[in-house]
Each structure stands twice: as C-alpha cells, then as structure tokens.
Design brief:
199 residues, mainly alpha, TIM Barrel, two-stranded parallel ribbon
Length: 199
C-alpha cells in the first residue's frame, strides 16, 4: 500500500512504486494475489482523487499485461452511517471495477483506525456499486467519478466520524438500524442522480 505524497512522490511515481510492489509480491514472495490500496499521506484514505488515479491506472496496466489477481483495501475518511462514507466507497468500487481489479475486499471506515467503526453496510455499497458499474463505458464512469469525488473531497477536514457498529446495527439480530438504512437510501439516490443505475 504505497503512500502518495510521501517519499515515493506524486501520482506517477506512486503508480510506478505500486507496480513494482505488485510484481515483487508475485516474483519474490510467491503470492496468490496482491492486496493493494494506495494511501494519501495527508488524509489517510484510499478514496482521494489521487489515490483513485493510482489504483485505477495500476490495476488497468496489470490487467492488460499480466494474468495476476489483484485486490484492493478501502479506507474512507468518513465513518459508518454517513453518506460521505458510502459515497467514498462507491467511488473506489467504480474505479476498481472499471480498471479490471479481480478482488474487492471490505471497507475499514473512518480510515481503519477507530475501533468498531466498520459495518456490513459499507461492503453492501461496495458490492452493489461494483455490480452496477460492470460493463459500463469507461468514459461514462469517469464522468460520474469526477462529480462524485468532488462531492466529498472538500469535506476531508470535517469528515463525520459516524457511528460505531453497535450504534449502526441491532446487535442481537445483526441487522442495520432504520437510521442507517435511510442514510444508505440517500447515498443510492445521489449515485442514481449522477447516472449510476443501481437496481
């Protein structure tokens, strides 16, 4: 998981580093697949404009030139039960699907650093968006992504922490609360207005 903006440098340099670490995992470590996810040095997220560029270009290059399996980790800035978190997840799922990434793993919301701040609803968004994106024209996807990323990237400094798993779910039945279902429906509505057909 190379760090954009750190010692490696900008988008292009981080993409080169990402390719190198991916190839190394197979050549030197005999990996079955490579689990990736470029991270933004300032925001600690994989869903920033720059990290999505890196992840998308790297996955597409590897997909075109190799037959290796690639996975990606999700670290939204915002926490569960927030529209921002779900939109960040959607942007990354669209990028990964369009660029040919084979495996998409779950989400570590709130940058993956807060205890109990991950739920199944983020993974549900990931799956539904990936399915809706599959087969779409890349130009159309990029058009949606530009609007989608713009809608949340200005909020990084004030990103909502969200709620813990215990606050987002009925822990006895392991089902999401009505509040989270409403937040989810609102995020789906945003994506639909942007042109993503989520059935």
């Amino acid at each position: 998981m190379p760090i954009f903006g750190g010692y490696v440098g900008g988008v292009e340099e981080t993409a080169i580093c990402d390719i190198a670490t991916t190839l190394t995992s197979f050549a030197m470590l005999n990996a079955s697949y490579h689990h990736d996810g470029p991270i933004h040095i300032r925001w600690g997220t994989t869903s920033s404009r720059e990290t999505l560029q890196i992840a998308g270009h790297v996955a597409a290059a590897m997909d075109i030139n190799t037959d290796v399996l690639l996975a990606n980790q999700y670290y939204p800035v915002a926490g569960p039960c927030t529209e921002m978190c779900l939109l960040e997840v959607a942007a990354q799922a669209m990028t990964d699907t369009a660029s040919g990434r084979e495996l998409i793993s779950g989400c570590a919301s709130a940058k993956g650093v807060a205890e109990d701040y991950t739920t199944g609803m983020e993974a549900r968004m990931l799956g539904e968006v990936a399915e809706a994106t599959a087969g779409m024209d890349v130009g159309e996807i990029n058009h949606i992504l530009k609007q989608l990323i713009y809608s949340y990237e200005r909020k990084y400094l004030t990103a909502p922490m969200g709620r813990t798993f215990q606050e987002c779910y009925n822990v006895r039945k392991i089902v999401p609360t009505k509040e989270y279902l409403n937040v989810y429906a609102s995020a789906i509505d945003v994506l639909s207005r942007l042109g993503l057909d989520i059935g």
